[in-house]
Amino acid sequence: MIIxxxxxxxxxxxxxxxxxxxxxxxxxxxxxxxxxxxxLRALRKELxxxxxxxxxxxxxxxxxxxxxxxxxxxxxxxxxxxxxIETRDVGAFARAEKLSIEAAARQVRYAFLAQTAQRIGARxxxxxxxxxxxxxTVLMHFLRGAGLAGLSGMKYKSTVNSQQSPEHESNVHxxxxxxxxxxxxxxxxxxxxxxxxxxxxxxxRADSSNLDTTLFRNKLRxxxxxxxxxxxxxxxxxxxxxxxxxxxxYDYLQTQVDAAFARVARQDAETGxxxxxxxxxxxxxxxxxxGTLRAAFQKLRGxxxxxxxxxxxxxxxxxxxxxxxxxxxxxxxxxxxxxxDTFTLADESRRILPDLPRLNVExxxxxxxxxxxxxxxxxxxxxxxxxxxGLVDRWTAFxxxxxxxxxxxxxxxxAGDRFQPAGLQGHSKSLHEFMIDEKIPRAARAQLPLLxxxxxxxxxxxxxxxxxxxVTEATKEIWRxxxxxx
Length: 486
Description:
The chain is an alpha+beta fold. It is built from 15 helices and 22 strands. It folds into three domains: 2-231, HUPs (Rossmann fold); 258-347, 2-Layer Sandwich (Uridine Diphospho-n-acetylenolpyruvylglucosamine Reductase, domain 3); 364-485, Phenylalanyl-trna Synthetase, Chain B, domain 3 (Phenylalanyl-tRNA Synthetase, Chain B, domain 3, 3-Layer(bba) Sandwich).
């Protein structure tokens, strides 16, 4: 049979299944999933796999949904296959999470499939997406404004895992271990599936919701695609071939995006926020700018299903052109916030702090020499006496050791603080004015460490030392202070 040959070929070509695998087969009861189950059952001895049927009653069509579940259970018994049949209230979940019924059903269904796989120790879930589904998916993504990721369509295999952040939790929890999702019918047309059902006397269930053209996919399937095929009868083949080519292009681009992301961005271990070095990111090609933004979104939300071209382009333009404090809203509760030297992607419910050392205590004593860890931080402070040498950056400062007598400690700012910034010939300046003039990020000011010697500010850390302790030609011994990550 054509379908058995195509399924076997797809499994082998794309390495979808390993001998000995237990495969959870998602079976709704419709022609697509029934064909998938029948074909895998016919090939299971050859492939040396074990099958497990999984059906989720979405509780959306009343008695019809219940009848579908009973029918799948009966098929599993007749074909002597183990099965997991469960019910979820998708409507209630959609209302609680403010999702469309389609989006809610997808989330709940994949969570159920992943949980079933984890419970029985399976590493593979097979779903019945086919070639015509691929065409509809690519066209839907195009109409919604997707980039290359969306236009590449569904993959033959992907990974189901939980990448949700604590701030984005819902009632749907996926297993933390990776589970492979495969699509063995992705090269099989809907017409071939219908012929297969007829040839094997299969009598699939009919889902009345597939007739509802208020749903975007159904309208596309029943109205838009038939019209487009009057303009090009070969349209489905054209879209499938384009998706294959775009998928290859996208895979290559992703290797470049991954390398660029490692250079210009990092994830803060404390907040989970992703912080970009703004100048380095600006120097990237626009394709890599967009790609690294999408990568950050995916790291924080697990996928970018709700992310459109417009979201990315608006965020990119703000990161490129706007001043500190500018913000770009993104889907799924994320936002981009611009600072002077960086910009950050994080959950909008979080207070986003710049990528600077932060002091969370009222005072932290420092030894004249040694390494001290900032409380609840990835940063340490190293103090040492040495010659005037070593790495010079904003987080290293040199002082005249003879002028640094007395207690040495870090503290945050206090009302009325003043100091004498080096270069002002001994004139004092309020710390408040200095922070504004130097454009120190507002969110960082309250926790920015100040190095105090005796009772005077010796260094606004990362910005300016005090005139009274700076190194001069008369300096005989240098005291160095460096902030660095552990």
